Amino acid sequence: MSWKGVVDQYRSRMDTLPEGCPAVTLLEGNTPLIEAPRLARELGLNARIYLKYEGLNPTGSFKDRGMTVAMTAAAADGAKAVICASTGNTSAAAAAYASRAGMKAFVVVPDGNIALGKLSQAVLHGATVLAVDGSFDDAFRLVTAIAEKAPVTVVNSINPHRLQGQKTAAFEVCDVLERAPDYHFLPVGNAGNITAYWMGYREYQRDGIVDSLPKMMGFQAAGAAPIVNGAPVANPETVASAIRIGNPVSWKKAEAARDESGGVIEAVTDAEILAAYKLLGSMEGVFCEPASAASVAGLRKLVESGRIEDNSLVVCTLTGHGLKDPDNAIKVCPEPVRVPAEVEGALKIMGL
Ligand SMILES: *Cc1c(COP(=O)(O)O)cnc(C)c1O
Fold first, then answer.
1. Residue 1's pLDDT is what?
2. Ligand 1 mutation pick, 52, 188, 193, max ligand atoms within 8 A of CB
3. What does the pLDDT look like over 322-351, one tens digit per residue?
């Protein structure tokens, strides 16, 4: 049977959607869960690691899961326009799904601080891009203020439909593994995703589909780690632009997910994030964006300090596709090697 997209695939579990409304979908979800044995060996972990490769959603990030539900609800409600603040991926998804629904999209981004791939998606899908002189948090404040005065639907993760969609990634993990993992690692920015996965796992356990729950292991970038520090960060800084957030919308819910699951929310440095980013690309053939690699950087850190039990089942979510932000790949990797256009000279340089 062919995949129907997140809304229709899990319709009975979409707690917030009015019954029977037609889905606004690009057939998102059903992303691969890729086993990563070379990574496990490299980390020295005697356990099975799986990568939930969310970069393979239609617009290249997990944001599509929430956006299909938010846009389905907005369309059912007769909305004509949507608005969001974004570090990039939410705007790409909002723009694509709004175009599909025949709605207008306004996306508010921090000026000069959005990866080119993401910006190109927003403009190509016909969104009006508003660049503000400030951070994501400033952009988000502006969005909520605009929505109080004008007929636009906010599709940031304060919109409850978003988390309903995002929880389906946890369903898919369990559907494939036929159990819940022992640990689930993921990056934390606005903290909606860690909240949504926890909702999804708990729902499957409540309904007897799985009989255990994973520990939720969230990782912020060290320069943008408000939950770890216990205070908002005024000027968040990290190479991982998708998690460059100083005052997460789902802060309290993420702490609840951490505490109820017996997990952690900790920080990883940019150097650790970029090392994991390169490792995933060079050892497992999986290209994710830097923010995504915070999950694997976190796993590595915990393995090194002996905090992951042997023979565990570990899932790391890779939230977005590496092609969103190719500049970072180019920056951290060697330049192309120059060779003459003849065999002998080329072979010499190739060391063959
Ligand atoms: C949005 C996003 C995140 C952060 O997710 P939150 O739900 O905000 O914590 C991480 N990585 C990528 C690629 C994203 O687009």
1. 82
2. 193
3. 999 999 999 999 999 999 999 999 999 999
319 lines ligand 1 (CB under 6 A): yes
Query: Residues with Cβ < 8 Å from 233, sequence gap 6 or more?
Result: 223, 224, 225, 226, 246, 247
**CA-proximal residue: ligand 1, atom 5 (nearest):** 189
Q: At what angle do helices 116-124 and 89-101 cross, to 10 degrees?
A: 10
Q: Structure pTM? A: 0.96
* pLDDT in the model for residue 112: 85
DSSP, residue by residue, 6-44: HHHHTGGG-TTSPTTPPP--S------EEE-HHHHHHHT
Q: Which residues contact 348 (CB under 8 A, 6 or more apart)?
A: none
Q: Is the Cβ–Cβ distance between 74 and 82 less than 8 Å?
A: yes
Instruction: Provide the terminal-to-terminal Cα distance of the chain, rounded to the nearest Å.
Output: 49
Residues of the chain with pLDDT under 50: none
Whether the Cβ atoms of residue 288 and residue 240 lie closer than 8 Å to each other: no
Which residues 6+ apart lie within 8 Å of 323 measured at CB?
60, 117, 287
| pLDDT value at residue 312 | 97
What is the distance between the alpha carbons of residues 289 and 269, in angstroms, rounded to a whole number?
15
Going from the Cα of 19 to the center of ligand 1, the distance in angstroms, rounded, reads 29
Contact 146, 152 (CB under 8 A): yes
Half-sphere exposure of 237 toward its Cβ, with a 13 Å CA cutoff? Answer: 2
**Tokens matching residue 110:** 């921090």
Which pLDDT score, from 0 to 100, does residue 76 have?
Answer: 96
196, 66 in Cβ contact below 8 A? yes
